[in-house]
Design brief:
Distance between the termini of chain B: 46 Å
Order of helices and strands of chain B: HHHHHHHHH
Helix content of chain A: 55-70%
Oligomer: heterodimer
Helix content of chain B: over 70%
Number of domains of chain B: 2
Shape of chain B: globular
Largest sheet of chain B: none
CATH superfamily of the largest domain in chain B: RNA polymerase sigma factor, region 2, helix turn helix motif
Structural class of chain A: mainly alpha
Largest interface: A-B, 23 and 37 residues
Number of strands of chain B: 0
Distance between the termini of chain A: 101 Å
CATH class of the largest domain in chain B: Mainly Alpha
Order of helices and strands of chain A: HHHHHHH
């Protein structure tokens, strides 16, 4: 059978008065959109909607990428696992000076070398050492 | 009403709404049937027709008169149809899900059909075609558009459209013969 042998006919049907009502339906949708635009943009309501929406988006992004946005605590735990050798190797590979590092170190966390071999050899008493430091204006905290 | 007259009404703020109402009344049936033949279901077609005219309204200012209003509206409707069918396919995660089979089942179960057996078989054969070829076939066979008009709507060369239509007719005739 050829296509030309088939009588061309539209077999689909539509509800009664569908085409009478369709223009009204479309007009309603357009009016609704226009009203929404007018109230949101022209009346200046958009910041009130945009700010909470932006907040919501940020929260969603945070929860959608839990591995990407870690807490400070978890970052500290990760850093603690890095060996001292690796940290020293990293610091040596950068241009950061010792003074710059010291500026960022918390006083309590500062751990000095156990003993300076030069002072051990000299067997200087603490009092004498303090006097010497005062004399040269060396701040103990800096050491 | 002529496009020019309609466009004049659409461009004047005072007659814009009235002009749009006339435009909807003038093209609603053509747009509806174009969409309905693609999506089969009336409710889906109804949603899409409304969406098409909302888009027409929103983009009226960007309409350039190098195309006819009819071609422009048909192009929007065609894109809406293809997007709808694409989304429908993507919505189902099982790759073997067959939208054509689903539409074919809708054809069988639809109470709003007024055709005999051969008409139904023709519709099922058309559903076997890829979406774009189905669009071309419908526009040529049912809407009786010229290849030049279809070319403008689909942005495809007349030569490709002729080849596509010829191939579609062959596939349909083979399907009808097969049972």
């Amino acid at each position: 059978m050829k296509l030309d042998d088939i009588h061309k006919k539209n077999i689909f049907d539509v509800p009664d008065r569908y085409f009478d009502q369709l223009p009204g339906q479309i007009q309603k949708r357009i009016t609704k959109k226009e009203n929404l635009y007018t109230s949101v943009v022209r009346n200046g309501y958009w910041p009130r909607l945009a700010i909470p929406a932006l907040g919501l988006v940020l929260v969603l992004i945070f929860f959608a990428n839990p591995g990407k946005y870690q807490s400070v605590e978890s970052i500290e735990v990760m850093l603690a696992e890095v060996s001292d050798e690796d940290v020293i190797a990293y610091l040596q590979s950068t241009d950061i000076t010792i003074e710059e590092i010291m500026e960022h170190v918390d006083g309590e966390a500062l751990v000095l070398e156990p003993a300076d071999p030069l002072t051990n050899d000299l067997e200087i008493e603490n009092l004498d050492l303090n006097a010497l430091m005062d004399n040269y204006g060396i701040d103990e905290n800096y050491l | 009403m002529e496009d020019k007259e309609l466009l004049n009404k659409l461009r004047m703020p005072d007659t814009r709404n009235y002009g749009f109402n006339l435009l909807v009344r003038q093209y609603q049936q053509k747009v509806y049937w174009h969409i309905r033949k693609m999506v089969i279901d009336h409710d889906d077609a109804d949603d899409l027709v409304q969406e098409v005219f909302v888009k027409v309204w929103k983009n009226l200012d960007s309409f350039r008169e190098d195309a006819s209003l009819f071609t422009w509206i048909y192009r929007i409707a065609t894109n809406e149809c293809l997007n709808f069918l694409r989304k429908k396919k993507n919505r189902f995660f099982i790759p073997i899900h067959d939208v054509a089979a689903e539409l074919s089942t809708k054809l069988d179960s639809s109470p709003a059909l007024a055709g005999d057996e051969i008409q139904l078989k023709l519709q099922k054969a058309i559903l076997k075609l890829p979406d774009k070829q189905r669009l071309v076939f419908n526009m040529k066979y049912f809407d009786e558009l010229k290849y030049e008009e279809i070319s403008e709507i689909t942005d495809t060369s007349v030569g490709s459209l002729k080849a596509s239509y010829h191939l579609a007719v062959k596939k349909i005739e083979e399907y009808i013969k097969s049972d």
